[in-house]
């Protein structure tokens, strides 16, 4: 079996990633919650892909283990200079419910609700410097109010309706979300790469 660490403390992201990669039987998973005292790196990349790879390399070298890191964000047509690489940090909120309340208040009067989610997933193994980066995206729109329970770490899932879908991300089952979501589409690409990895001892 090969052990790979998911470089996140975001419970929602970790849960999604483990679900998306759950069909790869020769890999076991850890998250940053299994380690202590590891500081976060400064995200200095200017793209989702560069930030994801930066984080993967940083944690892989700190923890001496293969790492998968993800960087994601939302771009809004009505606010091209906001969100993006700093989506979650754009709003100073006390919790996920407060974040989504402020987010919806910000766009309440906007006629253009078009939005695109992006997810870059990067793999790095410090043993042989193997690296891989993939990008998934999902275009859609922001609805007026949450249409599913607010999920920890990924509050926008309750208000993002992807193109050609009948429900928001947060209301989808696992298979449907893997098909429509930015993270699911990136994970499909990464799964193909991970499936071909040497399982090790």
Question: What can you tell me about this protein's structure?
Answer:
There is one protein chain. This protein has five helices and six strands. It is of the alpha/beta class and 201 residues long. The chain has one domain: Maf protein. Strands 2-1-3-4-5-6 form a six-stranded mixed sheet.
Overall, the morphology is globular
Rg of Cα set: 17 Å
Strand neighbour order, sheet with most strands: 2-1-3-4-5-6
Runs in which pLDDT lies below 50 for 5 or more consecutive residues are: none
Explain briefly what this protein structure is.
The protein is of the alpha/beta class and 201 residues long. Helices cover 29% and strands 24% of the residues.
Task: Give a quick set of tags describing it.
5 helices; 29% helix; globular; 201 residues; alpha/beta; six-stranded mixed beta sheet; single chain; Maf protein
């Amino acid at each position: 079996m090969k052990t790979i660490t998911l470089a996140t403390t975001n419970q929602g992201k970790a849960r999604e990633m483990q679900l998306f990669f759950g069909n790869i039987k020769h890999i076991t998973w850890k998250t940053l919650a299994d380690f202590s005292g590891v500081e976060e790196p400064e995200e200095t990349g200017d793209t989702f892909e560069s930030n994801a790879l930066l984080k993967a390399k940083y944690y892989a070298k700190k923890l001496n283990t293969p790492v998968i890191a993800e960087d994601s964000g939302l771009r809004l047509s009505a606010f091209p200079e906001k969100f993006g690489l700093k989506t979650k940090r754009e709003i100073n909120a006390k919790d996920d419910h407060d974040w989504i309340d402020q987010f919806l208040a910000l766009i309440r009067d906007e006629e253009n609700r078009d939005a695109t989610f992006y997810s870059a997933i990067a793999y790095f193994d410090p043993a042989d410097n193997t690296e891989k980066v993939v990008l998934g995206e999902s275009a859609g729109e922001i609805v007026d109010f949450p249409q599913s329970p607010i999920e920890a770490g990924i509050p926008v899932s309750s208000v993002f309706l992807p193109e050609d879908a009948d429900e928001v991300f947060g209301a989808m089952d696992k298979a449907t979300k893997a098909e429509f979501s930015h993270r699911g589409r990136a994970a499909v690409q990464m799964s193909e790469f991970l499936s071909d990895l040497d399982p090790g001892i």
